[in-house]
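> call design_seq(struct)
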């Protein structure tokens, strides 16, 4: 099978269901941003400090593929069975955040992204996740989007923040707090 099809050479692509849309459409931007997020999750998973978390991070990547398939489907024309997110997927993120938070110092100030290159990867992923969430919310204003897609993205960005804190703790890296200039 060839990777290139030449069917997108005029700036159009097909959704699951066959509908042709411009590559600049909001739906394409949504699942493209989720794909970008997935790439950052792969980079995050590859950080040495995340050795014990690789399985969970791979599972999150799988959920992002599920989400991408949902977003890449024409909600009015696709007859294909698309995998769904489940409430348990959100609950898993919440449980992991609660577990990590239990061993971290109480958060009393805003934290600046950074402190260690590996921690910075988590913050970049969090920012891309927030952008994906904003785009998907915008898409929902004009087309069907499953509620759990938005809930999962919202919780995932929180998880990535807590993971960054946990990684900093594991690495012995300083959490740099924001000191507002008054």
């Amino acid at each position: 099978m060839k990777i290139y099809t030449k069917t997108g050479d005029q700036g159009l692509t097909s959704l699951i269901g066959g509908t042709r849309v411009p590559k600049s459409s909001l739906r394409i931007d949504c699942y493209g941003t989720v794909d970008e997020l997935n790439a950052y999750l792969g980079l995050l998973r590859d950080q040495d400090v995340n050795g014990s978390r690789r399985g969970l991070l791979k599972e999150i990547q799988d959920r992002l593929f599920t989400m991408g398939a949902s977003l890449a489907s024409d909600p009015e024309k696709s007859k294909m069975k698309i995998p769904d997110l489940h409430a348990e997927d959100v609950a898993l993120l919440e449980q992991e955040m609660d577990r990590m938070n239990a061993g971290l110092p109480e958060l009393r100030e805003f934290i600046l992204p950074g402190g260690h290159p590996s921690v910075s990867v988590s913050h970049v992923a969090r920012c891309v996740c927030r952008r994906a969430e904003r785009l998907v919310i915008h898409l929902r204003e004009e087309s069907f989007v499953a509620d759990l897609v938005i809930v999962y993205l919202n919780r995932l960005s929180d998880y990535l923040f807590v993971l960054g804190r946990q990684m900093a703790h594991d690495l012995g890296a300083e959490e740099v707090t924001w000191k507002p200039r008054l």
